[in-house]
Write a structure and sequence with these properties.
Chain A: InterPro entries: CHR_Transporter, Chromate_transpt. Chain A: Keywords: Cell membrane, Membrane, Transmembrane, Transmembrane helix. Chain A: One of its GO terms (cellular component) is plasma membrane. Chain A: Belongs to the chromate ion transporter (CHR) (TC 2.A.51) family. The complex is a heterodimer of chains A (about 200) and B (about 140). Chain A has helices spanning about 1-25, 35-45, 50-65, 70-110, 115-145, 145-160, 165-204. Chain A is mainly alpha-helical and about 200 residues long. Chain A has a domain at about 1-110. In chain A, helix 1 crosses helix 4 and helix 6 (about 145-160) runs antiparallel to helix 7 (about 165-204). Chain B is mostly helical. In chain B, helix 2 crosses helix 4 and helix 3 packs across helix 4. The relative contact order of chain B is 0.16. Chain B has 5 helices and no strands. The chains are: A mainly alpha (about 200), B mainly alpha (about 140). At the A-B interface, helix 3, helix 4, helix 5, helix 6 and helix 7 of A face helix 1, helix 2, helix 3, helix 4 and helix 5 of B.
Chain lengths: ~200, ~140
């Protein structure tokens, strides 16, 4: 029995590897763009996952650290073929883009004094600013719906601009505020409940 | 040197909440303080990393690794970025999905998301200064 299970797992892992190898190079501008490509490949084409599972995987991948594309690949790989599947999927999705980037590095570092390359880079930089700013706006639309997240964002930006603060501290500060607010709202709920119960006692 | 590259990106990989863009200030901090790149090279790195296909964080790691230690450097840096993803997603697949609905976890994530937006906005700001779009507007020290 186990002799048929193992080749099966390896076969599945190889299929995962080639699937993600094809999807990898299409990830222009970050992972969100490929989510629907992955969705199509695995729920419609290969029918390995239900769209319910896909939604769950996407939510978890967005919350965990790391690029969402790589995370989705890892979770799908694990779900379908265990740890070998996870590793094959990560390598599959990362390899093409890493190789492309390496070739670019090798070419660019040899030609970095070339005026044409310099001109091209000068033209690219502003578009990258737009790309990054758009990422902030897109996340902001999902998250900044109340005064509290707004004030966290504004405080953090001011801290980053005015002090040589380590950027990781910013994440820590945000997490702390989230937990403190949760603790505060929990205890105020308790207080209200206590008061209500006391009120009931008085009534009786 | 190769190990430092690997270790630095390994640590960054564990912290990269909110995807690659939020990691840009952290990578800048690491790359500049180790002397792997100067600010000029860093802005070129981000320009190339952003225009290439693939995750920005991974691409930046490849570029920074390459500049600091050639081919071997980029391999070590990108493995450093990849490994935490593998470990974390294994943990997520086995443990984390059970605590995802826990209200403390949700509260921590709710606080972290606005901070991530601040980091991304700051990355856009640094890139604006370095790309020479707005000269002499630098407030940061």
């Amino acid at each position: 029995m186990s002799s048929t299970v193992i080749p099966n797992q390896i076969q599945l892992s190889l299929k995962l590897f080639t699937s993600f190898l094809k999807i990898g190079p299409t990830t222009f501008g970050g992972g969100y763009a490929i989510l629907h490509v992955i969705d199509k490949e695995f729920t419609e084409h290969r029918k390995w996952l239900s769209s319910q599972e896909m939604t769950e995987i996407t939510a978890l991948s967005g919350a965990a650290p790391g690029g969402i594309g790589v995370n989705v690949a890892a979770l799908i790989g694990y779900r379908i073929a265990g740890i070998p599947g996870l590793l094959c999927s990560i390598f599959g999705i990362s390899m093409p883009t890493t190789l492309i980037m390496l070739m670019l590095c090798a070419t660019a570092s040899g030609l970095s004094d070339n005026p044409l390359i310099q001109a091209a880079l000068m033209g690219i930089k502003p578009t990258i600013v737009a790309l990054i700013a758009y990422a902030a706006v897109r996340m902001g639309k999902q998250t900044l719906k109340h005064p509290l997240p707004w004030s966290i964002t504004v405080t953090c930006i001011l801290l980053l601009l005015c002090f040589p603060i380590h950027p990781l501290l910013i994440l820590g500060i945000g997490t702390m505020i989230g937990l403190v607010v949760e603790a505060a709202s929990n205890s105020s709920k308790h207080n209200i409940r206590d008061q209500q119960e006391q009120g009931k006692h008085h009534m009786m | 040197m190769l190990f430092t590259l690997f270790w630095t990106f390994f640590k960054i990989g564990f912290m990269s909440f909110g995807g690659g863009y939020a990691m840009l200030p952290i990578m800048e901090h690491a790359a500049l303080s180790h002397g792997w790149l100067n600010t000029q090279q860093y802005s070129e790195a981000i320009a190339l990393a952003g225009m290439s296909p693939g995750p920005v964080a991974m691409n930046s790691a490849v570029y920074i690794g390459y500049t600091a230690g050639g081919w071997a450097g980029s391999v070590f840096a990108s493995l450093g970025m990849m490994l935490p993803s593998a470990i974390i997603m294994f943990l997520v697949a086995t443990i984390f999905y059970r605590v995802y609905d826990n209200h403390w976890v949700q509260a921590a994530l709710n606080g972290m998301k606005p901070a991530v937006i601040a980091l991304i906005a700051y990355a856009a700001y640094t890139m604006t200064i370095q790309s020479g779009l707005v000269k002499g507007l630098s407030i940061s020290t």
